Structure formats: C-alpha cells, structure tokens
Amino acid sequence: MNINVEGFGQAALLIVKGEMTADDVASLRKTTDHQLENEDVVDLVLDMQEAPFVDSAVWEFLLDLQDELAERMGQVKLARCDENVRKIVEMTRLDREFELFDAVEPAVRMITA
User: What's the rounded Cα separation, in Å, for the pair 3 and 106?
Assistant: First the structure.
C-alpha cells in the first residue's frame, strides 16, 4: 500500500494505492496521526479508487479512527471505492458508519464548506 496526502484546510485527502491489509495498519496509523497533529485538520477523505481490497483489520482501524475524529467534531469519508470494496461496505453495513462518494471533489467540498 502507498498513500499520498493532500491538504484542504480542515480536511486531509489520503490517496490510497494498493491493497490495504493488516500489515498496512501501522503505516496508515502513522500517516493519519501525522495529519491529525495539525489541530485544524479534523476530517479525512480516503480516495480508494486504486485500493482493490481492504481487510477486516483495516476496517477496524477506520472505525476506531471514525470515533477518534468524532471527538474532534470530524469524520472519515470514503471516495471512489472500487466495486468490490463498495460491495463489502454495503454487505457489512459499514455504509452506516462511513459516507461514500463517487468522486473526491464532493467529499472534500462537503467537509470544507
């Protein structure tokens, strides 16, 4: 997994490339912690277009991150999920926890508006 980051005021966009597995949780935590060191950043948008697989350890991390951001009055948004990832999100009802977007721009615009 590879992550590139772009800043949008109170939101950070994490562009994820590659499968997201338990082996990547530490790297993902390091990246998100680094973004959240800036107290102005309270929201994270994950661009998942090039992430064909997300395992349960990563979903658990993202749920914990969602709770952490809620304490800061923020949230995690998922954008451009791969079809397989979207199916997993819907089947596991994680779409109740994370808002899904078909494009990055509306997710970032909604947060920074």
Answer: 20
Burial of 58 (0-12, 13-18, 19+ CB in 10 A): buried
At 15-35, the pLDDT tens digits run: 999 999 999 999 999 999 999
Task: Kindly give, in sequence order, each residue whose CB lies less than 8 Å from that of residue 95, ignoring residues fewer than 6 positions away.
Answer: 89
DSSP 61: H
Please provide residue 104's backbone torsions phi and psi, each rounded to the nearest 5 degrees: -75, -40
Query: Does the pTM exceed 0.85?
Result: yes
Q: CA-to-CA distance for 108 and 89, rounded, in angstroms?
A: 20
